[in-house]
Amino acid sequence: MEHIKTTKPVASQELAQNFRLGAGPATVRNEMLRLDQLGYLEQPHTSAGRVPTDKGYRFFVDNLLAEINLKDTEKRAIKKIFANLDDEEKFIRELSKIISHLTGSLAGAGIFDKNIFYESGLAEVLKEPEFQETEYMQQFGQLVDNLEENLQEFLDDQSPDLEQIFIGEENPFIEAQNCTMIISSWEHPRGFKGFISLVGPRRTDYCKKVSLTRYLKNYDH
């Protein structure tokens, strides 16, 4: 969580000093080394600290991720979008905009079996420090260009009731293998069903994004 907040590699001494772990820097260092050897952490060449690997993020998502409640203001914003019962295209456009704003991610939204898709939030996600790397930026640009086509092809083989979190190399799209992508379904009170996808760096607020997509998935009023 510390790396997710700060974007910086985390060192054992920093953890020992800033958190009540009940252990000194040497013990923490040994534990981090063990996690490194097990493939949960890795050490960037230019830093003494460590960052999570895809395996480390996956462990967090599968074992430590606790659903949190959205703020009332966030719930009201979503309810306002779902109150639109007449114009499906406007609903998809506004849904992608509000979700990208709330999560700071690139959001793509669409309706199953209809040629309605809208994506929003490129400006939001480009604020992340990962995009200072030219190669990362170029690969993400390719992902954005192909997102609708890739999602439609992927969803052809999926159940309409889905929630999947892809981390790094787990992603089914080559262009997304430096990213995290969450794909989840939702159902409008009027009866039509669709999907939302959130894409951003692997270092992301998983609790917030999963909480939001589950709120959409279970929305019934």
Give the number of domains: 2
Report the principal-axis shape.
elongated
- Please tell me the overall pLDDT: 85
Low-confidence residue ranges: none
Number of helices: 9
The fraction of residues assigned to DSSP E strands is 15-25%
The CATH superfamily title of the largest domain: GAF domain
Structural class: alpha+beta
Summarize the helix and strand pattern as letters.
Answer: HHHEEHHHEEHHEEEH
Separation, N- and C-terminal Cα atoms: 33 Å
Level-2 CATH architecture of the largest domain: 2-Layer Sandwich
Oligomer category: single chain
Q: Which strands sit side by side, in order, in the main sheet?
A: 4-3-7-6-5
Please compute the radius of gyration using only Cα atoms: 19 Å
| Overall CATH class of the largest domain | Alpha Beta
